[in-house]
Design a protein that fits this description.
Blueprint lengths: L5 E3 L6 E5 L3 H11 L8 E3 L3 H7 L4 H10 L4 E6 L2 H7 L3 E5 L4 H10 L2 E5 L11 H8 L5 E2 L12 E6 L2 E6 L5 H9 L1
Parallel strand pairs: 1-7, 3-5, 4-8
Antiparallel strand pairs: 1-2, 2-6, 3-6, 4-5, 8-9
Length: 183
């Protein structure tokens, strides 16, 4: 179904998402969140294989993926041409959540463009009842879980030509990343 948008829990915060190739769904997310088009959506994937379908993965990126994912760690990588043309950005943030339900959803649907559940610029909502109250009529499905989310956005790193730049610290610290890269 084109334009399908769902809300589901992850290991960091609840996400609102749609299949990566669903242009109607992508448009709906921007409308629901009142999000400026200049702010790209991140992509959640179930596996390294799914990441390789949508982004260029060099040796440094693959080592970081194998070390820090699944978990609260987002890599910004060069988009594959098809994805760049689809989303309009040369890079894409990718992550594999460490959350059983999220992985199941991603295995069934493929890579999904996502963002936190909130009005753009506001604090992310992470309580199921609050999310249902605010978004029940706006999305196609809201998943619940008994597993707790961390309520902390992921660490974000940019990987370009083998060079790593930390853009936001989250569950994985700058020190952990720097220590790992020294190996």
């Amino acid at each position: 179904m084109a334009g399908r948008v769902i809300i589901f829990p992850t290991d960091t915060v609840y996400g609102i998402g749609t299949k990566i190739r669903d242009l109607d769904g992508i448009e709906r997310i921007y409308q629901i969140k009142h999000r400026p088009k200049e702010k790209p959506l991140a992509c959640l994937c179930a596996s390294l294989e799914q990441i390789k379908e949508i982004a260029e993965v060099d040796m440094v990126s693959e080592k970081l993926i194998q070390k820090f994912l699944p978990g609260g760690f987002t890599l910004i990588l060069k988009s594959k041409d098809e994805i760049k043309n689809l989303i309009g950005y040369p890079t894409i943030g990718v992550r594999i959540p460490k959350h059983e339900l999220a992985i199941k959803i991603l295995e069934e649907n493929g890579p999904m463009l996502t963002t936190s559940v909130n009005e753009s610029g506001s604090v992310p909502l992470n309580e199921y009842d609050e999310i249902v109250k605010e978004y029940a009529g706006l999305v196609d499905k809201i998943y619940n879980t008994t597993t707790e989310s961390m309520n902390k956005p992921s660490t974000v790193v940019l990987v370009s030509d083998g060079v790593v730049k930390i853009l936001r610290e989250g569950p994985v610290s700058k020190e952990e990343i720097e220590e790992f890269l020294k190996l």
